[in-house]
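User: Okay, second chain of the day. Same drill as before: sequence in, structure tokens out.
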Amino acid sequence: MKNVLFALLVLVSSSPSFAQQSVPDIPFDSVGDFLKLPAGMNLGEVPGVAVNSKGHVFVFTRSNSAGGPAYAPAAAQLLEFGPKGEFIREIGKGLYGWSFAHSVRIDKDDNIWAIDKGSDMIVKFNQAGQVMMVFGRRKESADDESKPWEPVEPPLPAIDGLFRQPTDVAWDSNGNTYITDGYINSRVAKYDKNGDWVKSWGDKGTGPGQFRTPHAIAIDRTNNVYVGDRTNRRIQVFDTDGKFLRMFTIDVPPVPGTKAVNGNTPTGERLAAVIGAPNSICITPGANQVMFVGESTFPGRVFKVSLDGKVLGVIGRSGRQVKQFSGAHGLACPSENEVYVAETSNWRVQKLTLRPQGTQTARSVGTAGAAVAEKRTPVIVTRIFTGPDGQTHAEQVNVKLMPGETELSEMAKVTGMQIRRQAPNYFQDWHPASRRQYVVTLSGRGEIELTSGVKIPLDEGHILLAEDVTGKGHISRGVGTEDRVSLLIPLAGK
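Assistant: Same drill. Structure tokens below.
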């Protein structure tokens, strides 16, 4: 509780703001041979990696193709490893949906989802490795016209429930499924928790809400949907209905002298077109979430990014050695300091352990104080506010702190401070906030529900800025068996 109070006193600001600061190199250790394969077995290209709640690692690899033709063989195996990298099993051996592995994800119930670019299918397995659902349909082998998709202009119209080279999958807090689709189509598809089609959004282009290779997708705890729009070199953010909210880019040039693993090293316009292009995305669990973004094959780095788009640090560079990458095609981040990187060209998975409190080399940092500031985890506030539609909406904001050994936000004008205790089963039906105020959960658990169905967990240490003082408001309820104790800090002014 003392840490929470101290963090609050450092943080309180009347208007949290965003600012792109200098970008440090994050020190880290890597285990390049973490996975222990059976004798005589090797991985192929590794486009996907995921970790479940037990620490088991799932790898979707483009291997098992030696018996096929020289060109366009089926290349997909789904493998499971234990927390120490020990091989456990192959899942879906010889599966009809296997053609060309692309990504693998684990949902909140530890179900395993594999996305196959070649068969145009997404396959859901339960923990036992049994197929539970399939999305999309592969072309029939008996059809004389069966062949790989080819990009055409104008693009083919998308079809509900069918995919053309899908890329990734994610879920919101209500169990809805979102699929990026993909290399030929340029959209995000949405299914409900029962697997029924809901809608899709997006088409090919460069404007907001348009895509050129939507290659990765992740959803934060407040149900913001982040789509890695790779060829457009940006990450777009949407609500769960596909409404465009914002976008950001990663504009960090590579270290001079860095060489590409494959092909000529890009320069000039070619380099500008690939810097920060999002190959993969993962978002950490917990109250203070951050994002990791894997870059395309060159410059091939991994970035730690706040959810508002601020680059917090750079991890590694292009290369073949341990701690270097050749296209971080898949990422898994079970915690802020543990990241698994699936590489295509280097045929491996590296397990990274970040050392954020170590010495960092800050790029373009003007003062020692700023360099110190870059080492620290950002302070995140969940803000709820009334939108033009009269409904309550939510966003996560990164509080801007002045750099130094002790970091402070701008001073806020407040009218007082109050401690509140609520019973475990407290419930408040739809209501707007009574005033603009910070609400810091000191102990216990609660939850806020918005009209969109989004549920925001209020765990210990969570900081809420309530500004939805008009409109329908939100529902508040207790979670668990303990009293919830929170600190209320009303802000001055309207």
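Helices lie at 2-11, 268-272, 368-374.

User: Thanks, on to the next one.
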